[in-house]
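// run 5 | inverse folding | seed 20
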């Protein structure tokens, strides 16, 4: 057994983690849409709908996530559902109110892709470590894995592949390629740093 005692986060620590994650995620989305990039998961779906319709990202993202709260409650409990709802709502509000105070000029696509990946990766890490998330595709993937044995990672990969395939209808291939770099960086941040065997809470 480990010599490090297992401790749960306090409510204040959870609040700080949700605030940090929501703010960094909103900043990442604002930079991402400034660059015209796309991404995966439910955020990517909301961004594609926003690009295609001209509607604002924030309400689309909020509505797209609504069906997943029940699944989150069934799969991961009431605490996860409530924290995820708070995080999604907070990010949606921040994406709406931040632009007057946070504007971008020229950003090279390579730098933009790296920043988007690191910002959103750190945001998701904070939310994961405080029992929340910003999207429901992972929950659906876990449900399918439990019901059919089909690996959750493959479900998420297929969904993201569909998002990026659709992106070619709305964006040029260079923009999609830079977007893929940002998504790759994001997933590497999560894969390398989100390790339950190294983070005890």
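// decoded
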């Amino acid at each position: 057994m480990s010599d490090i005692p297992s401790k749960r986060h306090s409510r204040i620590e959870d609040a700080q983690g949700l605030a940090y994650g929501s703010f960094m995620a909103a900043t990442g989305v604002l930079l991402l849409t400034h660059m015209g990039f796309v991404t995966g998961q439910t955020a990517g779906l909301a961004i594609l709908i926003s690009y295609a319709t001209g509607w604002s990202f924030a309400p689309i993202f909020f509505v797209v996530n609504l069906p997943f709260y029940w699944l989150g409650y069934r799969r991961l409990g009431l605490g996860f559902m409530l924290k995820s709802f708070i995080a999604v709502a907070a990010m949606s509000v921040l994406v709406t109110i931040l632009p007057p105070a946070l504007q971008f000029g020229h950003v090279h696509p390579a730098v933009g892709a790296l920043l988007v990946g690191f910002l959103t990766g750190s945001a998701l890490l904070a939310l994961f470590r405080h029992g929340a998330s910003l999207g429901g595709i992972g929950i659906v993937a876990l449900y399918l894995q439990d019901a059919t044995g089909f690996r959750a990672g493959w479900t998420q990969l297929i969904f993201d592949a569909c998002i990026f395939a659709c992106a070619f209808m709305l964006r040029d291939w260079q923009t999609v390629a830079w977007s893929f770099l940002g998504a790759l960086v994001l997933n590497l941040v999560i894969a390398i740093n989100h390790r339950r065997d190294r983070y005890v809470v």
